[in-house]
Amino acid sequence: MKLSIKFKIMILVSILMCILIVVLVLILNTKIKEPLIEALKKKGEALTINLAANSEEAILTGDEMLMSIHIDKLLQDKSVIYAMLIGKNGEIIVHSDQSIKKGKILSDLISENIKNSNKLLVQYFKKEKEGIYDMSMPIYVENKKLGIARVGFSDKEINWTIEYIQDLIITVTCAVLILGIVVSLGAVTYIMHPLKMLANGVKKIGEGNLDAKISISSGDEIEDLSNVFNDMIVKLKKAQLDMIEKEILGKEIQIARGIQTTLLPKECPQIDGYEFKTLYKSAKEVGGDYYDFIFLDSNRIAIVIADVAGKGIPGSLVMATARSILRSNVRYSVNPSKVLSKTNTIFYDDVRRGMFVTMLYAILDVAKMTLTFANAGHYPVLLLNSNGECKEIGKSGLALGFDRGPLFDKAIKDWTITLKPDDILVFYTDGVHEAMNKIKEEFGQDRLIELLIKERGNKISDIIEKLESEIKKWAGDSSQNDDITVVAFKCLDLTKNQKLKILQEERKDILGQKLELKIKSNAMYLGAVRQFIGDIAHKEGFDEETISNITLASDEAVANIIEHAYSFIPENDINISVWSDEDKFVIIMIDTGESLSPDLSVMPNDDDLAQLKRRGRGRYIIYQLMDEVKYEINTGEGNKLTLVKHKKHILEG
User: How many Å apart are CA 84 and CA 95, to the nearest integer?
Assistant: First the structure.
């Protein structure tokens, strides 16, 4: 938090005044109160001795009136709260309190101590809020003890005096504090005025206004500092005009080249049964096109191609942003459309309006030989089959950054292609068919398709190299006006044994093992549950529809536990474990909340579905999507829900 100098000085003065008050109070207690107490004790001793001396004759003669006169005279001192003369056996002779009768013997501890003392005795005790010094002096005549003079002195008056002085000190100090703050703020305001002028001038310079001048006439060091700044501005402006073009250009190219290097893959994937090849040529030192390969697991690889609305440095920076956001969301869903939707929402908030990126995101399932993709405003995929037919697949949706969500989500969808041996798939950007010759004719999509059909029998690397050669020949000496990017792969004849080997390689790490996830009873963790179970089901080889059914059933089960077992209390535990064998895929959920209805293990009747409550509908969904459901109440671990999917749903071969 930023604090102004005025505020800091006000705090500092306040702290100093508080310290001063504390110091003065300590001094008051140690240097003033103690001497006052000592003075009270000395006075008390003198008055007590004097009462004893003056009362000798009255005690000998039994003159109680004279004794009372001596005591009344003593009570004129405000610090005296009681006085008495006591006989040699401890009986009261005369007491300042008329209610205490003559002859009464006091039996408290202080009185007992007095009887046994042969000299001046000072005792202290507390009574309510005041301290009392009890002083007693034996009365002797010719070494014969006649009685005792006893007087009580209160320190209340001293405490009143100390409190009065403390209040006076605090009042004066607060007045000085307020005056000091006012004076300090006035002085700071006066001193800070030229400094603010200097700061405002420096701020204008920092904003790029090198024509700004700082004019201060304070007649001190601040004025000298402003003159130094003015001289510096003149020199800086001259140097900037000489070097700005070279520095900006050099730094832009250096930064952009570094970005471009990290954006693009260093090599094509090496996957049994597939051949990959890429072509990338930027129109400038750096480009706005982007392609990528992202290994999601041992069986799936994501293929990305994108084109930003712009080239050069700005295009590469926007593309770097899109790449970073996409890579952080590739495991958000197994559906490419949902991945692009999530990416678009974040991308829309991160870039200025008018900047957008076309992107095609695909997931290649190596074992199942399927390609599932979604298209955000990019060119469709070109599919070239072994019969020489070339198709455009995947109509274009909206580009990333064009709309934050509603329109984008409505336009995007998933496309799935079942691949066959010798199929060729080509992803490309507009720089391919928009490449121009010297008379401004475009290479065109027709020439691209004709070349692919003609070269389809060759290796994919030879096909792309041929395409690059033809584009270069077409353009001749004409400058390249847009980035050129191609990502292509060819499907080889993947045998049944090879497919099973790939599936087995992926499943060998999880088959027979128990994988666990522990979450809190909060709906915010439902996405994590879907991701956890969905990823394992995918590795087990289930198709996308079955995976969706398994995750939906799991979602309903966890939601039921959160609502009915834990009543939406978010800090309770739900333990989820997944294991499989050759025949079945098992999900176990354990909670320690309220037991659900015992009929959870009973399949709902379809005829009664309309009458089922919300909890019953969730149970109906679970039974429809899973092959076995078992619910056990209050086991040793808690309530236990078991969901089973048989392996008959796995694609064989």
Answer: 4
Distances in whole angstroms, Cα of residue 644 to Cα of each of 243, 549, 586, 587, 588: 71, 12, 5, 6, 9
Q: Are 52 and 140 in contact (CB under 8 A)?
A: no
CA proximity to 416, closest of 394, 433, 399? 394
Q: Other CB atoms closer than 10 Å to residue 169's CB: what's the count?
A: 16
The first and second tokens of residue 474, run together, are 């077409």
**Residue of 212, 168, 215, 173 whose CA lies nearest to 194:** 215
**614-625 vs 544-560: helix axis angle to the nearest 10?**
150
Binned at pLDDT 50, 70 and 90, residue 165 comes out as confident
Torsion on CA atoms 540, 542, 543, 546, rounded to nearest 10: -140
On the question of pLDDT at 547 being above 50, the answer is: yes
Q: Does residue 297 carry a pLDDT above 80?
A: no
* Pairing of β 414-418 and β 484-491: unpaired
Better-scored residue on pLDDT, 539 or 48: 48
The rounded distance, in Å, linking the Cα atoms of 366 and 364 is 6
pLDDT value, residue 653: 38
Identify which of 294, 202, 241, 281 has the alpha carbon closest to the alpha carbon of residue 484.
Answer: 281
Which positions ≥6 away from 391 have C-beta within 8 Å?
382, 383, 385
Q: Tally the residues of the chain.
A: 653
Tokens representing 82 are: 């009681």
pLDDT band, very low/low/confident/very high, at 596 (cuts 50, 70, 90) = confident
Tokens 């209160």: give the residue: 154
Sheet harboring 300-308: ordered strands across? 289-295, 300-308, 357-365, 370-376, 414-418
506 has pLDDT over 70: no
Give per-residue pLDDT as tens, 615-644.
457 778 888 899 999 999 888 889 999 999
Is the CB of residue 94 less than 8 Å from the CB of residue 85? Answer: yes
Vertex 239: Cα angle to 233 and 245 (nearest 5): 125
Phi, psi (degrees; rounded to nearest 5) at 114:
-65, -40
Q: What's the rounded Cα separation, in Å, for the pair 561 and 619?
A: 12
Q: Confirm if 490 and 459 have CB atoms less than 8 A apart.
A: yes
How many other C-beta atoms lie within 10 A of the C-beta of residue 471? 22
pTM (global) more than 0.85: no
Angle at CA of residue 522, ends 518 and 527, nearest 5°: 70
The residue among 149, 151, 152, 153 whose CA lies nearest residue 86 is 149
Integer angstrom CA distances of residue 150 from 90, 140, 211: 11, 14, 94
CB atoms within 10 A of CB 214: 21
Using alpha carbons, list the distances in angstroms from residue 362 to 375, 421, 503. Answer: 9, 19, 20
